[in-house]
Amino acid sequence: MLSENSPAPSSVRTKRYELLTLGDELLLGLTANGHLTYIGAQLGRRGVLLQRNITITDEAEAIVSQFRESWAKSDVLITTGGLGPTCDDRTREAIAEVLGQKLVFEPEIVKAIEARFARLGRKMTDNNLKQAYRFERGEVLPNAHGTAPGLWVEQDGKVLIMLPGPPNELQPMFAEQVVPRLAERGLLLDREAYVQIRSAGVGESALEVKLQPIFDRYGEALSIAFCAHQGQVDVRVSSPSGALSFTQLDEIAAECAKLLGEDFMCYGSDSMAKVAGDLLRAEELTLAVAETATGGMLASAFTDICGASKFFAGGCVCYSNESKMQLLDVPECLLKQHGAVSAENAVAMAVGAAERLGADYGLAITGFAGPCGGTNENPVGTIYIALHSPQGVWSKKLHYPGPRATVNRRAVNAALDWLRRELVRASRGAVVMGGQTGGQNG
Amino acid sequence: MLSENSPAPSSVRTKRYELLTLGDELLLGLTANGHLTYIGAQLGRRGVLLQRNITITDEAEAIVSQFRESWAKSDVLITTGGLGPTCDDRTREAIAEVLGQKLVFEPEIVKAIEARFARLGRKMTDNNLKQAYRFERGEVLPNAHGTAPGLWVEQDGKVLIMLPGPPNELQPMFAEQVVPRLAERGLLLDREAYVQIRSAGVGESALEVKLQPIFDRYGEALSIAFCAHQGQVDVRVSSPSGALSFTQLDEIAAECAKLLGEDFMCYGSDSMAKVAGDLLRAEELTLAVAETATGGMLASAFTDICGASKFFAGGCVCYSNESKMQLLDVPECLLKQHGAVSAENAVAMAVGAAERLGADYGLAITGFAGPCGGTNENPVGTIYIALHSPQGVWSKKLHYPGPRATVNRRAVNAALDWLRRELVRASRGAVVMGGQTGGQNG
């Protein structure tokens, strides 16, 4: 539901946001431009489409000329980088000149920097004082995770926000200080602009065809956006005009989820492993994994989740046949007869992992990810996955084109999605059986 | 050595390159801007610093206005995206208008697209014909991996290069067609502009102090750039004026490597795991790994290398105590007495992995990566690594601040670097011993 102060989505949409990212390291391809990904996504969630991102060198001349142009065009201009103590660039000075403002020394910033150094048991060096200047008609955004504070200026009906370059400093500052301030001023929505449904195993166009009858009922009041990535498709339902309330959007999303059945993964943006893990935890079940070519990617998908030890027993990366025999009790004769890239071995690995680690479910991947390896029967790109569950054990043969990293990623996603679907079916089965014995309906 | 046609580095440096990346998905943070990282790095290797990257929406109006400004400022302008069959934007048309060129239908492109569809056993749909237009005074860059060809225009003493959006189409087109064409025209160097030395375990400023005496001998003829990332620092030596030949740069790099001793990792940009793996392969030695919180990251570092099965036996991700006992023979009493996050357990895991998998080396990581877990004695961020080698077994306690992913990444890097150094020492030991018995000097 919209709070009373929430701006109308349509008024937010007309604000022009630009992002100016500074740094030669971005232009030399040494660092990925994570600020664009992060800030773009955060603004998108609050109903704003960033209009332009410009990355320029650290040269003062380039900064002045670009800042002047971007400032003239924007309602909100965000800059990242160039605020640190060692930079020999003149970002603050260059921008102050264009704004016609003076920089003033702020003793409070020095105190905060000194306190930070003291906590780390070090003494502040003088070059840090460079970070203690703010615009004379501007505010300071304290930095809880580093020395350079952010800077906030409102002038000519526009907002300028200067953020420090390190992502672990920028991201909390943006989420905790910048987003609420922008929302207060009606420059972005005070909650997410859309409800996101994440689906798996259905192509973008098939998904659109399937959901269209629901969307058709709402006409232009409803806006739909699809985004496909790695075997998953996200659907975002929103109402830019504000004609539909958030309660209605939630209801539409629930209807889509119901129609999608087990192709529905989750609301929001949880990973496949997180969704499967939550299903395991809910039933107090455990999982063990075994893998070859994917070499730890399958295990990582689970261990990236905090608290994974509640359901994840462990995994084996079995490159050699020796390791498959030693760690997973795969019989030597099986490997000799069928080879390591075979349905038989995948099954033996899944069962071996579950039994060795005393887990309820065992998930295994073996295959040729390339570029080396492969046989006539099982060329590069051939993957076998196997799933051991309390109900039995199965194997599937898959084939993916593309480079090694792509093959591995798709294999891991396929295995995770299979596990997820089995868990969904098992939990539904339990409900039905409960209904049959206890006379309840789900 | 410079070939006869090679442009002088200084003339390349004065050319202004801009990159225009198109797409709402970039501005919404749905996709990382990998084109900037890739193209920026490729240009940097050939002596060019990209001056500006601009990401804008797919709207025709935004494209026209940005293209006009960027074209006026650039010597070489590269665009990515907006060339596909389904885009409803007008990228080609918008740019043709600014250039004052007509678009002409090119039957050769249609033939190539039809052939591609035929190979995939599908029929070309009509919307693909949209991709068959080129500029009347321009060329076509064939696309070996997709339907939309690239476009090349030379006009007003400038070059425009339009590339398709999918990275697997763009990257080979850029490397195989664009770079050679630009080099032919003297717009970038025809070999790498620098020699890169990768070091580990020395901070950027300490490295600078250490190498300065070498650099000082060459004065302004030599240019040095440092780039620090994840415990490694890269040093690039180049000669923008062309005063030093590439043979001389190679010699300077070799001198730096010698001075750095075992802090020298490699020339170029191999990963730590690749360097360690090469050392193992050279001696026909094998490795097994065991890990807890890093959950597969350590194993992945090796399995990401093609041909890793030559030296990598396998790994265990042991989340539960049960799995440590079952997979690695860690004694239950040890886990009860010292806990899973202890030097004793790290040692038992390293030895267990090596023994179980019959490997020469065993590398183990256990710890609290956070945000949950941790004790008074071993707070979040505490990591134990252990290395089992033919010479014995050791353990180290480390502590890293920061979020889970950072702690894990640093723990993996520390373990890999330890292994690398041990292998370097072991191989040197062999040389010294050979020298002692055979009367040779290294």
UniProtKB/TrEMBL annotation, chains A, B:
<dbReference type="InterPro" id="IPR041424">
    <property type="entry name" value="CinA_KH"/>
</dbReference>
<dbReference type="InterPro" id="IPR050101">
    <property type="entry name" value="CinA"/>
</dbReference>
<dbReference type="Pfam" id="PF00994">
    <property type="entry name" value="MoCF_biosynth"/>
</dbReference>
<dbReference type="Pfam" id="PF18146">
    <property type="entry name" value="CinA_KH"/>
</dbReference>
<dbReference type="InterPro" id="IPR008135">
    <property type="entry name" value="Competence-induced_CinA"/>
</dbReference>
<dbReference type="InterPro" id="IPR008136">
    <property type="entry name" value="CinA_C"/>
</dbReference>
<protein>
    <recommendedName>
        <fullName>CinA-like protein</fullName>
    </recommendedName>
</protein>
<dbReference type="InterPro" id="IPR001453">
    <property type="entry name" value="MoaB/Mog_dom"/>
</dbReference>
<dbReference type="InterPro" id="IPR036653">
    <property type="entry name" value="CinA-like_C"/>
</dbReference>
<feature type="domain" description="MoaB/Mog">
    <location>
        <begin position="18"/>
        <end position="185"/>
    </location>
</feature>
<comment type="similarity">
    <text>Belongs to the CinA family.</text>
</comment>
<dbReference type="InterPro" id="IPR036425">
    <property type="entry name" value="MoaB/Mog-like_dom_sf"/>
</dbReference>
<dbReference type="Pfam" id="PF02464">
    <property type="entry name" value="CinA"/>
</dbReference>
